[in-house]
Structure formats: structure tokens, C-alpha cells
Write a structure and sequence with these properties.
Low-confidence stretches: 472-481
Number of helices: 15
Distance between the termini: 48 Å
Strand content: 15-25%
Helix content: 25-40%
CATH class of the largest domain: Alpha Beta
Shape: globular
Number of domains: 3
Structural class: alpha/beta
Mean pLDDT: 93
Largest sheet: 9 strands, mixed
CATH topology of the largest domain: UDP-N-acetylmuramoyl-L-alanine:D-glutamate ligase
CATH architecture of the largest domain: 3-Layer(aba) Sandwich
Length: 481
């Protein structure tokens, strides 16, 4: 097996000093997930990675990237010593990109980055060897880490690029040296750091600065800030490609049908009618899927194979996955859980509510009798000074009355709770653990329940508690035997 990194290549890439010869088959920043043969990168974050070098080497790390010999580590241990570990990782990433002939796609946006990255992984894997991060590694260390892990013989790579503050995206995009850049959508998120939507659009559009000459810039063609994105694409000398619901867009949706388990989409790809699906309901998934197909076309892939492979995609955990959870295997009672607990802003919350509203509960199987649509909504974070108004505005969703019961979690969601009709109010709690402690009270057989909120409000605790209801039911017969 060809190593990912040799000590000689790593020294060339970083300009560092290696204390021994070594070969690594992977790159790790966490001893909990480190695999034998990985190069351990001792980053300074919440903890100083140098404190874990000895543990990493004991666990089988091929070497460690450090800025000094850590206490308790022998001087002849396999170490790559550099002045600054993060800068060393960045240099590894640039070197890995430069030595690869892979065509690299960058993905950013306020909503849908990770889901679209996974759509692209599915599409590209059907037509070549594809490299993409397993998690949302999209920040100042996540992008170089993803690049440093890229095999030299990859045909494609998908790099997710995120931001919290102005000026973050452009240097990461330039590091990735992109062939194609995709912006999923620009929405109200991170408003604590940006004064308005135009400011967010300018920052997202900075991804086009990382495009190679003649690269392709793909962006939403149906937003008020579309002119900002288009201008940035043209200023970068890129081929500008738009997508969305606007009939003037290069790729536009003509019909979207939400089913219980899939989204069926009719669209036009540069004037050619096309039909595709994704194996989960959601209009936002339809739009992101169309953007992913535009990427496939920009890379010259077979359009029919790309659409077929997209049809097998399902969202990753916490980003809209729908699960069927059995409560009693003897009585065959169950409920459906929509897990969208990873993140939230006004746009993604509205999209999640649309999915719940389009779903069909099952009547006549539970103690309530009527299957219900239920939402558990947690605070949306980092929305800035208008956060209360933005939470209250959720009550203005045109079809919100089709949701039977809404539980609210967190101090910001209390403002929504106050605006809900009395019959629609469930509970308001300050912290997610209060509802997670009594999950059975939240649901009945036949119900469909959505859990949505920003990661920091920890509504994922409620998701975990609801899942365990099913696990307990499944194990009961074994205990009786």
C-alpha cells in the first residue's frame, strides 16, 4: 500500500526537521479516533495536542507533527518538528493539493454545506475515486486537514468551507486551489459578525477567489443577493453558472414533489429537461441536488449516471434524516422521527417545517387516536441583535397551523412560544435535558416528530432519548426468553 506521507515528503512540504524515517497512511488530530499508522498533528485548541503525543505514539501513530519535543517523549521518537503546528498542517495541505491531479470542488453556503458535500461524494464516487471529509471539517484547521488527508491518486475531492467571521473563506479557498466552487444558499446566519445579508453574501462569494483560471462558479440564481454573487464570479474570471427556482437560471427547478420518503424533482439543465430524486423529503434538498448536478456537469461527468447516483443519497445524521422507531414490536406500534438537530437558522428551520408539514402521520394506532405532526424547536444561535424578532417570525410560516403541537427549547424560543395559538403550544423549557428526561411524554404511536435547533442548544439529547425508546422496545423479547 502506498503511504499517504513519508518523512521525506513531509519535510519537503513543511520545511521541518524529522527525528526519524517514517511512513504514515493517515493524518489524525484526535487520539480518540487515531488509527495505527497515522501522523498525529499536535494542534493547540481547547487542549494542547502536545500533551497527547506520548499517548498517540503508544497507540501506534507513525509520527507526530509538533513544535517541540513534548515532556515524556524520547528525543529519538518519530517526530516532525516545525515552528508552528497549524502552519505545518497548512503546508501539508498545500503540498497534498499540489501533488494531486484531482479536480477539487469547494462548497460553502449558509445552509446545506455538509448535505451537498455528501451529495457530491455520492455522485463523484460513481465516476472516479473521490476524497471528502467524513465530518464537517470546514474551518481554519478542518480544510488543511482534509487536504492533507487527500490521496495523491484521487480523481476528485470535495472541500467544505465555512466561516463565522469576515475574511475566513478566501484564504481557505485559495489553499484548496479549486476547479469548481459552489454556494448553496445565502441566508441569515452568523449575523452577530455581519451587519446584513449583503455582508454574508460578499463573504460567501469570496470562495470564488480560490478558483483556478477558467474555473466554474456555481451560485443561487433566485436570491436578492444574486447580483453580488454573479459579480464576484465574473471578477474572479470564472464561468458563472446559476441555479434555483428562477426560470432565467442556467439550472432551474420546474416541479418539486415531496413524498413521505423521497423528493421527486423535475428541472431544466441548461435548457434540457431532467428528472431526479433524493431519498428524503425536502425542497431544500431538491435545490441542493440541482446545484450538485451543475457541479457534475462542470466536471464533464455523465449526466445520466450523476442523476441516478444522486437518487441513492440520504442525508447524514442530524441533518434531516427520517427514522422509523418501533415502540412495541408485539402491537407493531411506532412513530417517525425527523432528526435535524445539528444546526438551525431561519431558512433551514423553515425548510424543516415544510418537510414535517408534507409528512403524513398514521391515525388510529396510538392512545391519542389521531396521528400528529409535532415539532421540538430549539434556539437558533448567532443571529445577532434581531434574534428575538427572527424567532417570533417562525410563527408567520404560512402552513404552521398544520403542525399539531410545538415544543420550544431555550430562552430565544420563548418568544415564539408566546406567539403560538394556545392549542398549538406544547411545552417551553429552558434546556433540552428537561424534555430528554421524559421522551415518552412527547410522542404517541402514529406521530411524526421533528427535532430542530442549533448545535449549542443540545436538542440532540432529545433525539438520542427518543431513539432509545425504540431500542428498549426491540430488546424486550430477548429479556423475556
Amino acid at each position: 500500500m502506498t503511504p499517504l506521507w513519508t518523512s521525506a515528503d513531509a519535510v519537503t512540504a513543511t520545511g521541518g526537521q524529522s527525528t526519524a524515517q517514517w511512513q504514515a497512511k493517515g493524518v489524525s488530530i484526535d487520539t480518540r479516533t487515531l488509527q495505527p499508522g497515522d501522523l498525529f498533528v499536535a494542534l493547540r485548541d481547547v487542549r494542547d495536542g502536545h500533551d497527547f503525543v506520548a499517548q498517540a505514539l503508544k497507540a501506534g501513530a507513525a509520527a507526530a507533527l509538533v513544535s517541540h519535543i513534548p515532556e515524556g517523549v524520547a528525543a529519538d521518537a518519530p517526530l516532525l518538528i516545525v515552528p508552528d503546528v497549524l502552519q505545518g498542517l497548512e503546508k501539508l495541505g498545500r503540498f497534498a493539493r499540489a501533488r494531486s491531479a484531482a479536480r477539487v470542488v469547494g462548497v460553502t453556503g449558509s445552509v446545506g454545506k455538509t448535505s451537498t458535500k455528501e451529495m457530491l461524494r455520492r455522485i463523484l464516487a460513481g465516476q472516479g475515486r473521490v476524497h471528502a471529509a467524513e465530518a464537517s471539517y470546514n474551518n481554519h484547521w478542518g480544510v488543511p486537514l482534509t487536504l492533507a488527508r487527500m490521496p495523491a491518486d484521487a480523481d476528485f475531492a470535495v472541500i467544505e468551507i465555512g466561516m463565522n467571521h469576515p475574511g475566513e473563506i478566501a484564504p481557505l479557498a485559495r489553499m484548496a486551489d479549486l476547479d469548481v466552487a459552489l454556494i448553496t444558499i445565502v441566508a441569515a446566519a452568523h449575523l452577530e459578525a455581519f451587519s446584513d445579508l449583503a455582508g454574508i453574501a460578499h463573504e460567501k462569494a469570496a470562495i470564488f477567489e480560490g478558483l483556478r483560471p477558467g474555473g466554474t462558479a456555481i451560485f443561487p440564481g433566485d436570491q436578492t443577493i444574486t447580483p453580488i454573487l454573479r459579480e464576484a464570479a465574473l471578477n474572479a474570471g470564472a464561468k458563472a453558472v446559476s441555479f434555483g427556482t428562477n426560470p432565467d437560471a442556467d439550472y432551474h427547478l420546474t416541479q418539486v414533489k415531496l413524498c413521505d420518503t423521497a423528493t421527486i424533482v423535475q428541472a431544466t439543465r441548461r435548457g434540457t429537461p431532467t428528472l431526479f430524486k433524493v431519498l428524503t423529503p425536502g425542497r431544500h434538498f431538491a435545490a441542493n441536488g440541482l446545484g450538485a448536478l451543475a457541479v457534475a456537469d462542470a466536471l464533464g461527468l455523465d449526466p445520466m449516471i450523476a442523476a441516478a447516483d444522486l437518487g441513492q443519497w440520504q442525508p447524514p445524521a442530524g441533518r434531516g434524516t427520517r427514522e422509523h422507531i418501533t415502540l412495541d414490536i408485539v402491537e407493531e406500534t411506532s412513530f417517525d422521527l425527523i432528526d435535524d438537530a445539528f444546526n438551525a437558522n431561519p431558512t433551514s428551520l423553515a425548510a424543516a417545517l415544510d418537510v414535517l408539514i408534507a409528512a403524513t402521520p398514521q391515525d388510529g394506532v396510538g392512545r391519542v387516536g389521531k396521528g400528529r405532526r409535532i415539532a421540538v424547536l430549539g434556539d437558533m444561535l448567532e443571529l445577532g441583535p434581531t434574534e428575538i424578532t427572527l424567532h417570533e417570525a417562525v410563527a408567520d410560516h404560512p402552513d404552521l397551523n398544520k403542525i399539531d403541537l410545538i415544543h420550544c427549547v431555550g430562552p430565544r424560543m420563548k418568544s415564539l412560544y408566546a406567539k403560538l395559538p394556545r392549542a398549538q403550544r406544547g411545552e417551553w423549557v429552558a434546556e433540552a435535558r428537561e424534555l430528554a428526561a421524559r421522551p415518552r411524554s412527547l410522542i404517541d404511536a402514529g406521530d411524526i416528530l421533528l427535532v430542530k435547533g442549533s448545535k449549542g442548544i443540545k436538542v440532540s439529547l432529545i433525539v438520542d432519548a427518543l431513539r432509545k425508546l425504540g431500542q428498549a422496545a426491540a430488546k424486550a423479547p430477548q429479556g423475556e426468553a
